[in-house]
Design goal:
alpha+beta, 24 strands, globular
């Protein structure tokens, strides 16, 4: 099956040109706190379905999106917090658009309960009350959906898990659904969320007027102080000036401090239950969307899709991964989804397989019924001497094929990046890779921890490189989940940091984020392994603070790929 070619003609058209705007509406919650909202709806007789944008950036700031030109990275006026959707587009097509300040943010009362379910519970419960309040308005026909990207997508999953009776469907786009794996990639801190919280690097910050440490509230003063000292004992933290200051003066930024202190997965990250527990409770239709370019977000989104048991669809879109702001993209798809589920119109929404993928390196859209794709041929590419990636393993022992290696001095003394790289021969025919991947690496280090940073690239005949995907693993987080998991999809619990015995040769299973890419004949596939990011390698399509926290240890790395230690990639080859 393929999508109905004329579906654009089946969706709601812009027939309402007069709107009612109700500002600073108070929505009462069950515990007496009131949330502030702006309500936009058609000025017409009758009742309408509603789309809720629940956000922490401040509804009065979101109002800028109604008269601000669309900005795309790397515009300096791109503001990641304008995420609630195009009010004029939605209302003109017969939907109410309700923009609500989350508890403890903007003009709403109460204290912040957490962020996207992290740090505490409450957002999902609050949205339950908001949905039911909206459904009871005279102008609403009782059918409510949700809209928005990033934070506004993540809380849709929280809301659906609480099952408000009048929430009929959701459309989370570009969301972050697993708090720990959003912030820590393979156990390595990603610093972009700090920018979003503090209003740096292309984001306006959380509109939190009374920030406080939820960790301090949960564990008490004595344990909190011990946690501060413990984190300062990690050289990655101690030798990063920003974090050294924050841990010495924790009142400076209590929300981001919580993320630094809770560097292992556990209670802090699971305030509204684990992701799997939330997904088990969802019984309404869910349309997920994500753009290629940020592998951790793609990985989380696919995990949500596979964990859902309700009606579901998944759109994997081409990069770059940062949508325009104010958010206005994919609105025809959003209306198509909600016309079906909220208005009862046949838009052909279910006349296609549930997964659509726009493959990088092509202009083609593929349609599938499940992920991973059943016809995938799981293919090994072995690391070989001379920087080769080959289909066959090395036949020589370690004495004759000694390890490769690199030394990495910490960034406080050098900007030089050590690395090793391996490439295939030029491809004789096109190679299409769609699915998860992994690097099984035999290696040793002479310190007790390091970062393993893995990049797969498409190298053209002229040497130009296009990044395909990445993988990340802190060596002390190498433990695998209990239970069965496929070799192409290793899972790490990240609930303990176990130091490495210096110079011990260890087998690491490094999760590589999903791929949807075609390499054409004559190109090469390149694997690069390093331990810190290149200081000047800033992707202009991402906010400037999208780097990770580098390893601060002076470390020698040895990579083994001999007869007895067959380091190799596992790749998702799709037969042509």
């Amino acid at each position: 099956m393929r999508p109905t070619p004329d579906w654009h003609a089946k969706i709601s058209q812009p027939i309402h040109d007069a709107f009612v705007d109700e500002r600073d509406v108070q929505i009462p919650l069950r515990d007496g706190v009131a949330l502030a909202a702006d309500v936009h709806r058609p000025e017409a007789q009758g009742s309408f379905p509603a789309l809720l944008a629940f956000q922490p950036w401040g509804k009065d700031h979101e109002a800028l999106g109604q008269n601000f030109p669309h900005q795309r990275r790397p515009s300096p006026l791109w503001d990641g917090s304008l995420e609630g959707g195009d009010t004029q587009y939605l209302v003109s097509r017969g939907y109410g658009h309700v923009i609500v300040d989350a508890r403890g943010t903007g003009a709403s009362g109460g204290d912040l309960p957490g962020v996207m379910g992290v740090g505490g519970a409450g957002e999902g419960r609050d949205i339950y009350d908001v949905v039911e309040w909206i459904a009871a308005r005279q102008w609403c026909d009782g059918n409510v959906g949700m809209i928005g990207i990033s934070y506004l997508a993540a809380v849709q999953i929280l809301a659906a898990a609480h099952r408000p009776p009048h929430l009929k469907a959701i459309f989370p786009e570009g969301g972050h659904y697993d708090g720990y794996r959003h912030v820590y990639h393979g156990g390595i801190l990603w610093q972009m969320p700090r920018a979003a919280m503090r209003g740096r690097g292309g984001d306006s910050g959380l509109a939190v007027l009374r920030p406080e440490s939820l960790t301090l509230k949960r564990v008490g003063e004595a344990k909190f102080r011990r946690m501060l000292e413990e984190r300062l004992s990690d050289p990655d933290i101690r030798y990063h000036p920003n974090y050294h200051q924050l841990l010495r003066y924790p009142e400076l930024d209590p929300i981001w401090l919580d993320y630094i202190l809770n560097h292992l997965d556990g209670e802090f990250w699971q305030g509204e239950g684990t992701l799997a527990q939330r997904l088990e409770k969802i019984d309404i239709p869910v349309h997920l969307g994500v753009q290629l370019g940020r592998g951790w977000q793609l990985d989380e989104t696919i995990n949500v899709f596979n964990g859902l048991r309700s009606v579901k669809q998944l759109a994997i879109r081409p990069g770059p991964p940062m949508q325009e702001r104010p958010f206005n993209e994919f609105h025809d798809e959003i209306v198509r989804w909600y016309d079906h589920w909220l208005k009862g119109n046949d838009t052909g929404m279910l006349d296609q397989p549930p997964i659509q993928i726009q493959v990088q390196g092509t202009t083609e859209t593929r349609y599938y019924d499940e992920w991973p794709i059943p016809e995938t041929v799981w293919t090994k590419a072995f690391l070989r001497p001379g920087g080769r990636l080959a289909p066959d393993p090395e036949r020589l022992g370690a004495d004759d094929a000694p390890p490769d290696g690199y030394y990495q001095a910490p960034q406080r003394v050098t900007d030089q990046v050590g690395r090793v790289a391996y490439q295939t021969l030029p491809l004789e025919q096109d190679l299409e890779l769609i699915g998860p991947a992994a690097l099984h690496l035999w290696a040793s280090i002479d310190t007790e921890d390091t970062n393993w940073i893995v990049t797969l690239s498409d190298v053209a005949a002229d040497g130009a490189e296009t990044s395909i995907t990445t993988g990340w693993l802190k060596a002390s987080h190498r433990a695998l989940d209990d239970g069965d998991h496929e070799p192409w999809s290793p899972r790490h619990p990240h609930d303990a940091a176990v130091p490495v015995e210096p110079n011990e040769i260890i087998a690491y299973a490094i999760r590589i984020y999903p791929i949807a890419h075609r390499l054409v004949a004559g190109h090469r596939l390149k694997l690069e392994i390093k331990s810190i990011e290149d200081p000047g390698a800033v992707n202009p399509m991402l906010p400037p603070e999208s780097s990770h926290l580098n390893s601060a240890r002076a470390t020698t790395h040895k990579i083994y790929r001999d007869r007895d230690r067959q380091s190799h990639l596992i790749l998702p080859l799709i037969p042509r």
